[in-house]
Amino acid sequence: MNAATELVIRRATQADRDGVVAALTEGFSADPINCWIFDNPATYHRYASGYFSCYTDYCLKHGYVFIAGDVVAATIGMPLDALRRLESDIEFDAKLEKMCGPHFVRVSAMNQVMAEHHPNSPNHMYSVFTGVMPSHQNLGLGARLVHAVFDLIDEQNLPMYAEAGNENNARLWTRIGFSLVGHPLPLPDSDLMLHPIWRPAKVSVESAIAQ
């Protein structure tokens, strides 16, 4: 047993907000798509932390945020209806542009690709980001966080949708119950692709009896 398996997984509160932003910022610091968006290492932390703070704040209010231990890892997401409200939220878009500065062009381009291919039905939960501090990566914390979300959505009989940032991550997601769906989504002016994945709803015994 490693120390990571003993870390408590729990629902985050507003008091954990800065830790969540830090975990996502550091956890994605070597991610190819994130490095494509924030392509200046000298200003990475300034703009990437602003980017992740926008989504963390929204998910704390309208979705879910789970953390591991003293926020060494975090996962954030939201239900479909919250995502659709976000896509037309002018104030959020203005805040995102301000926080991302010169990198907003690529953020906006990626968001457009994702919005155009995001399924409209059935109703589902959307996993936005799962990030782990580099010091705690490859210890299974990401999977433990996602399983905490499974517990949440299984109570509601909801499926889950996400986009994996590369083929390796997509394979990791398939090990915990997701399947690749559709086709990879190319990002403009790059050779990078997003890989849509889906986890079907787990119908409870009580629900099946009721039907």
Automatic annotation (TrEMBL):
InterPro entries, A to Z: Acyl_CoA_acyltransferase, GNAT_dom, Trichothecene_AcTrans
SUPFAM superfamilies recorded: Acyl-CoA N-acyltransferases (Nat)
Residue ranges constituting the N-acetyltransferase domain according to the UniProt record: 7-198
Protein name: N-acetyltransferase domain-containing protein
